[in-house]
Amino acid sequence: MQSMSVAQARRTALAAQGFLDKPHAEPTMRTFQRTLERTGVLQVDSVNVLQRAHFMPLYSRMGPYDVDLLRRAAERRPRRVVEYWAHVQAFMPVELWPVMQHRMDDHRAKRGKWGFVAANDDLERSLLAEVRDRGASTARDLDDGLPRAKDNWGWNWSESRRMLDYLFTVGDLAIAGRNSQFEILYDLPERVIPAAVLAQPTPTREEAALELVRRAARSHGVATVQDLRDYYRMPVEDTAAAVATLVEDGELVPVTVAGWKRPAYLHRDARLPRRVAARALLSPFDPVVWERARTEALFDFHYRIEIYVPAEKRVHGYYVLPFLLGDRIVARVDLKADRRVGALVVKGAYAEPGAPAGTAEELSEELRRLAGWLGLGTISVEPRGDLAPALLTLGAAG
Predict the structure, then answer these.
(1) What ranges make up the beta strands (E) of the chain?
(2) CA distance 142 to 203
(3) Which is the most buried residue in 11, 71, 161, 286, by most CB within 10 A?
(4) Distance in angstroms (rounded) separating the CA atoms of residues 323 and 340
(5) Strand 264-267's sheet: what is its strand order?
(6) Distance between CA atoms of 187 and 130, rounded to whole angstroms?
């Protein structure tokens, strides 16, 4: 059986995620499509303290780009991506809609167990009819006036909002886009998904599992069954069966990775570069770091997002991005876009053990590039973390 060092596995994983792709001087839809083929999905998250999560993995791989590329891909013909529960809620290639049909059917079968969706057939029919007549609509457009409360943690949705979420999850509605307030625009699938995609036959469960594991393996390069399962949030049994089939077909090659306790699988087309010369800030929801156990196994980097941790208990900060340099995560930085004053605020910057001598310089350059992409004219560095003094000295705040 082939064996790999952790460094080889790490470089293979970064190559699979697109960090070896030659940058385009000005990213185009072709650049976007290439990057999407690497990541497979773009996780959606509403937190906008820096930049919304689905825009960041594209920036980390493509460099500064016009975010309208993603909006065009998601909202204009020919639609290239659509939102669904592909990892968590995420943009996925639109051709995966039939592959997700079994997932939609499973959710429909569990409707009685969805505690937050009342069994209200009249409401379901009326909402579908309203969307059919009105076209793409937000929950506020369709709300029947039920009161909302903000008791406890987070929002208590109206009954119609809950039903819309259910109808989206089971595929009776699709997401046509979002408005300027980031509210979902619901519409009928036939007005969102290309007709050629809707006409595709639904694959069997086994075929669907094979396709998702195949895509996860390409995006990972080398991975355990758990890694492959997590990428599209699949049942363990379905993942294991698909892995066995892909091994038998020669698409996946069993390997051992030094220090990993579980068997791993290398995609036959995966690249094993001798060097990765990356420099990127990674969103907390980037595929490179979203599976925390894999992140530790590949990078020896312990990472936990602290958004939901009370401020006084946070170790590194509210919205902390790992800093990838070469093939290592060498630092982490807590960032905020203060749009009111036009500043990128570095609330904390911390070097990892063994970070190379030039880490502060490289991070300073990356912060300037990020600020330019976000349209922020200045950088403000707060005195938290061992890298903060060096960033100030280097003029990152200028």
Answers:
(1) 2-4, 42-43, 81-85, 89-93, 174-178, 184-187, 222-223, 252-257, 264-267, 278-281, 320-326, 328-338, 343-351, 378-381
(2) 34
(3) 11
(4) 26
(5) 2-4, 252-257, 264-267, 222-223
(6) 10
The pLDDT tens digits of the residues spanning 190-235 come to 999 999 999 999 999 999 999 999 999 999 999 999 999 999 999 9
For the chain, give the mean pLDDT. 93
Please state whether beta strands 378-381 and 343-351 pair in parallel, antiparallel, or not at all (unpaired): parallel
| pLDDT > 60? residue 11 | yes
CB atoms within 10 A of CB 305: 17
Question: Is residue 318's pLDDT more than 80?
Answer: yes
- Please state the pTM of the whole predicted model: 0.93
How many CB atoms lie under 10 A from the CB of residue 256? 13
Which position has the token pair 């995620």?
Answer: 17
Task: Kindly report the three-state secondary structure assignment for every residue of 51-102.
Answer: CCHHHHHHHHHHCCCCCHHHHHHHHCCCCCEEEEECCCEEEEEHHHCCCCHH
How large is the greatest C-alpha to C-alpha distance in the chain, in angstroms? 65
Tokens of 351: 């070097």
- How many CA atoms lie less than 13 Å away from 216 in the CB half-sphere? 27
Handedness of CA 59, 65, 67, 73 (dihedral sign): negative
Query: Is there a contact between 37 and 96 (Cβ–Cβ < 8 Å)?
Result: no
Q: Is pLDDT of 21 > 80?
A: yes
Cβ-Cβ contacts under 8 Å for 86 (sequence gap 6 or more) = 41, 92, 96, 100, 232, 233
DSSP, res 156: B
**Residue 115: pLDDT band with limits 50, 70, 90:** low
